[in-house]
Write a structure and sequence with these properties.
By secondary structure, this protein is of the alpha+beta class. It is 24% helix and 29% strand. The chain has a single domain (2-213, 260-270), classed as Protein Transport Mog1p, Chain A (3-Layer(aba) Sandwich). β9 (136-146) and β10 (149-164) form a beta hairpin. The radius of gyration is 21 Å and the shape is globular.
Amino acid sequence: MFGRRRSAGDRDRDLGSQAVDEITEAGETAAGGEVQASPGQAEEVGPWDATEPHPELPRVDLGSLQVPVLEGTDIQLVFAEQHGAWVTVRHQLSELQLQAFAAPKRSWLWDEVRAEIVAEISGAGGQAEEREGPFGTELVARVPAEPGQPASGMRPIRFVGVDGPRWFLRGLFAGAAAADPAAAAPLEAVFRGVVVVRGEQPMPPRDLLELRLPAEAAAALEEQARAQQEQQQAQQEQPGNRFATAPNPFERGPEMTETRLPRGQRPPGFDPPDAG
């Protein structure tokens, strides 16, 4: 988990306008005060492609995504068998989930992806509609609190999408940020400051761009796993310990481990990760 945690004296400070101002001012400086928007997308300063000038901000390098580290936010890299990998950015009672995909050179994905998301949400007993937002056309939806069980109550979520050069970035806002503009502002600022590293390798459209832990974090997790293994081994070797049990070869290791989709497999219909 990465991020700058606020001190107790700072928690009542409004981070939304501060974060937006920081990224907007830096973006205008880097881009000469003008930003070109893709078709159907509102004029904003980001997200950015790694090959274009972008504002210098503290960012954590997660491979295909470089995510701004803003005060009061925590960043986590999540791996799952069904949906591949995504980045979760949390701020207070809100979270933003980020995924980047390969895209065609001469067409946009967001229009067709929105239609697929609407169909999936409707099929699950939810409701979704389009509206114009700070990143262009977006989806606001209400989905069952328990997947597939509309009787469990409904919760709001919000999808945004940006088409870049040979990539597509999708954001999912959940919690307070899905319905409250003030709560969404800090996470929208994070989304604007994301830098996408597409790379030059050919990839089928809609394949997930690779995410990985920073070298320091990966080394720390390996060290943690090694220490746990040594501790278990020492306990097993203690004489007279009749309660000792053999190590379980199927026991899970550290929570942040990397799971890759099989070659060629795509996340079905851009199923959204659980935002609960």
